[in-house]
Specification:
Elements lengths: L1 H13 L19 E4 L2 H11 L4 E4 L14 H9 L2 E4 L8 H6 L5 E3 L26 H18 L4 H27 L7 E6 L3 H7 L2 E6 L9 H14 L3 E5 L5 H10 L2 E6 L14 H17 L4
Helix pairs in contact: 2-5, 2-6, 5-6, 6-10, 8-9
This protein binds zinc ion.
Length: 304
């Protein structure tokens, strides 16, 4: 029986199906180095670079709010066992500094080298917008940083990481082109992206959209009356046909904007988390495709 399990797990590992064989649950058969990431988007990108050479996990689960996440004692234990921790940086993971203080694992900031866009409004004005991964071009830089960090962690696999990284960057270019073509084809008066969180600065820059939001960065206190009034004013003034909200926050404030303006609720966009495997965006490439399609469909009045 033990031999059978070994064989099944070896087969599963080669097919990247790890859950029953010492994957995220932490079994003893899997001796690969463990790379711990702070959220699901990074975990997916890192898995593409790591291939089957490393075990990649995410501290936060699909759907989690990641800006103000509170690490659990189990998270701290997991971090202590990790061989490398990857965080986004750019002030995304407010909880991360405290978290690494309690862990000895080395860590790498994957946004290193990205040209940040400054936040334009509210308490965070002038700080870097953390959502750099909403530009697939930037994710190419994330990939280079991962290739480097993984090659230091497991130098014998450096050529594999480089090849995986190059193959993934080709896919990033494909999805970047799809996104830019779809969104920059929108008529000029429909190129406004109004969302709950100001998470789309990089995507808006890449695609020529004007970005407006209710609040700048997810935090405990969201959507003051002034922020909602400001969004309503913009939507009315520019006759914006549809507005959006993100999967990890309540859409109640945006529903207020909808009822005050008559704009349509254009749908749920994914930024700070992937969906589960059965949901609409199990991977980062799906996330970019899903958001582009949802935005275009809502702003042009087409059915998605
Ligand atoms: Zn966010």
């Amino acid at each position: 029986m033990a031999n059978l399990r070994k064989t099944v797990c070896a087969l599963a590992a080669s097919a990247l199906v790890l859950s029953a064989c010492g994957g995220p649950a932490g079994g003893t058969d899997d001796k690969r180095p463990v790379v711990l990431t702070t959220f699901t988007v990074l975990a997916d990108i890192a898995s593409n670079v790591a291939g089957d050479k490393l075990r990649v996990e995410s501290i936060t689960k699909p759907g989690a709010e990641i800006h103000g996440y509170e690490p659990t004692p189990d998270d701290i234990k997991k971090a202590a066992k990790a061989d490398l921790i990857l965080d986004n940086g750019l002030n995304l993971e407010a909880w991360f500094a405290r978290f690494v203080k309690e862990s000895d694992a080395p860590h790498k900031v994957v946004s290193e080298g990205v040209q940040p866009i400054a936040i334009g409004e509210d308490a965070y004005q002038g700080k870097p917008n953390p959502h750099a991964w909403m530009s697939p071009k930037n994710v190419g830089i994330y990939v280079d940083n991962m290739v480097k960090a993984f090659s230091e962690l497991s130098s014998g696999d450096a050529a594999v990481f480089k090849a995986n990284g190059d193959a993934y960057k080709a896919k990033l270019q494909g999805v970047q082109d799809e996104m830019t073509n779809a969104l920059s084809a929108l008529p000029k008066n429909e190129r406004a992206l109004v969302t709950c969180e100001g998470a789309f600065s990089y995507l808006a820059r890449d695609t020529g959209l004007t970005e407006r939001y209710i609040w700048a960065v997810n935090a405990e206190q969201q959507a003051t009356p002034q922020q909602i009034t400001r969004a309503i004013g913009f939507v009315k003034e520019n006759k914006v046909p549809a507005v959006f909200c993100e999967s990890t926050v309540s859409d109640a404030p945006m529903r207020q904007v909808v009822s005050a303006t008559g704009a349509a609720f254009g749908g749920v966009l994914f930024v700070d988390s992937l969906s589960g495997p059965e949901g609409p965006v199990p991977t980062y490439l799906d996330l970019i495709r899903h958001d582009s399609k949802t935005i275009v469909a809502a702003l042009t009045g087409a059915k998605p």
